[in-house]
Amino acid sequence: QVQVAESGGGLAQIGGSLRLDCEASGSILDRWIIDWYRQVPGKQREEITSFSYTGDVTLADSVRGRFHVSRDFPRVAVTLQMNSLKIEDTATYYCRVRQWDGLRWPEYWGRGIQVIVSA
């Protein structure tokens, strides 16, 4: 089993910064991917970043240039640094961990963490 622990987030003003951390623990395999999603009530969950065990990173257009993701070695953990925050970044952010078990990519989700950007 895999446990997903999210931390960080909170309240920031427009133009400010916040950080989110996601750590996977438990039965971690060699090939894994950690994604961050966000969701606003009434809207679909949006994938904003993906970090692979290979070091490959993808960022959604809505956050590129403002958000940065990096790994926190030696843990299986990634940090999402959110800069130049906008009102529309307000959402509940979810971390998802996927890993290749030889047959498929089972998923493990965190509980979600709140980010609020105010004027």
Please tell me about this protein's structure.
Strand 7 and strand 8 form a beta hairpin. The protein is mainly β. The chain is globular and about 45 Å long. It has strands at 2-8, 10-13, 18-26, 32-39, 46-52, 57-59, 67-71, 77-82, 91-99, 107-109, 113-118. The strands form two sheets. Strands 2, 4, 5, 6, 9, 10 and 11 form a seven-stranded mixed β-sheet that branches. Helix content is 0%, strand content 56%. The protein is built from no helices and eleven strands.
Would you count the extended β strands for me?
11
Q: Any idea what the shape is? A: globular
Mean pLDDT: 96
- The Cα radius of gyration reads 14 Å
The residue fraction in helices comes out at: under 10%
Structural class determined from secondary elements: mainly beta
What is the secondary structure topology, with strand pairs?
Layout: E1 2-8, E2 10-13, E3 18-26, E4 32-39, E5 46-52, E6 57-59, E7 67-71, E8 77-82, E9 91-99, E10 107-109, E11 113-118
Provide key terms for this protein.
56% strand, 11 strands, mainly beta
Describe this structure in a few short sentences.
This protein is mainly beta and 119 residues long. It is built from no helices and 11 strands. The radius of gyration is 14 Å and the shape is globular.
